[in-house]
Amino acid sequence: MPRFYFDIDDGSRVTRDDAGIEFDTRKSLCDGAVQVLAGIAVDELPNGSQRVFSAKVRDEEGRYVFHATLSLVCEWMGESEATGRLG
Amino acid sequence: MSNALIMKLENGARFTKEDRARLISMCEQSHGVPSRTDLICEGDKPSTVKLVLEGWACRYKTLQDGSRSIMAFLLPGDFCDLHVAILGQMDHSIATLSACTIVEIPRSVIEELSDHYPRIIRAFWWATLVDEGTLREWLVNMGRRPSNRQLAHLICELYVRLRSVGRADGQCFEFPVTQDELADTLGISAVHVNRTLQELREDGLIRMQNRTIVMPDWDRIVDFAEFSPNYLHLHDKAGTTA
After folding, report:
1. Which of B70, B39, B81 is nearest to B150 (CA)?
2. Quick check: B194 and A32 CB within 8 A?
3. A43: chain B residues, CB-CB within 8 Å
4. What is the Cα A41 distance to its own chain's centre?
5. Are A74 and A50 spatial neighbours (Cβ–Cβ below 8 Å)?
6. Alpha carbons B89 and B69: distance in angstroms, whole number
7. pLDDT value of position B189
8. Pairing between strand B172-174 and B212-214?
9. Between A13, A18, A36, which is nearest B192 by CB?
10. H or E segment at B121?
11. Nearest-CA distance A40 → chain B (Å)
12. Inter-chain residue contact A39 with B189, CB threshold 8 Å
């Protein structure tokens, strides 16, 4: 089974994967990448109102073959005072 | 090497010379099992109680989609299935993670201990309660902490447990667990484990040399992991200093 390496950027830390994971189908690799990003987002959030998590996947020859991005965007609607208190 | 079972149980009992001699003779018949081998499978009805004398094993369950969840690490001195004599059938599986030395204790020996060695039976009871306390701590750890603190907490626990049976030296220990196995323990992906290990390394909480984990600053990792060893019920309070 071919091995793939996941380089992760969570907006504040970039980690290069040196261990890799084996996948046999395109779908399993795609699902794996989504699972990784979702798991990391759970760890990192809430921390800021704008975050982008991305995974770039390398094959064994070092070529990037897949890219996934997960974005968080939070904003208030209508007029609100920036006092921090609600109500 | 000193008997890990006695070192462990002496945290929960005051043994006499006779008690110790009985435990040592109980451990004389042992055999080696290679790494990553099933010791007992879910549904088995084992006729002996197995004890890990050396090496690492784990309790696990396999889910319907083929994935695996690891619920406990068994270290030197830990029983695999102490009360299977009462429950009858295994509700989970146990496999080695490294090469292990295993003792198989016939039920008749457990019965003999019940009749003649009350302190040993009390210590077995203590060990079962500590296993339950550890499981409670894991529930909290895996359910409520982010992965970096989860992993740091697990590392602190493993170190304190190994140290209590004389299997860890200084501030490091040999760690035979793969990233895939860690992923099955923490309930996260192997990529996430890799990233989390890297994060702990970059933050100076651990160093990894071959298969050894070094903790350069014990107080810092304990603080970061929110680790308190109280649930391990050890006499020497190994977790408070290192």
Report:
1. B70
2. no
3. 146-148
4. 7
5. yes
6. 19
7. 87
8. antiparallel
9. A36
10. helix B118-144
11. 7
12. yes
Each residue's pLDDT tens digit, B121-147: 999 999 999 999 999 999 999 989 999
Rounded to an integer, what distance in angstroms lies between the CA atom of residue B214 and that of residue B173? 7
Residue in chain B closest to A43 (alpha carbons) equals B146
**Closest approach of chain B CAs to the CA of A43, in angstroms?**
5
The angle at the Cα of A76, spanning A74 to A82, to the nearest 5 degrees, equals: 115
Residues of chain A with pLDDT under 70: 79-83
> Max CA-CA distance within chain A?
57
Contact B191 A43 (CB under 8 A): no
Cis preceding-peptide flag for B46 (omega within 30 of 0): no
How does DSSP assign B20-81, residue by residue?
HHHHHHHTSSEEEE-SS-EEE-TT---SEEEEEEES-EEEEEE-TTS-EEEEEEE-TTEES-
ipTM above 0.85 for this complex: no
Chain A residue set in contact with B, beta carbons under 8 Å: 6, 8, 13, 15, 17-19, 21, 32, 35-36, 39-40, 42-43, 55
Total residue length of chain B: 242
Which of A35, A40, A42 is opposite residue B195, by nearest beta carbon?
A: A40
Q: Give the β-pairing of B100-106 and B172-174.
A: unpaired
Count of Cβ atoms closer than 10 Å to residue B172 Cβ:
18
3-state secondary structure of A85: coil
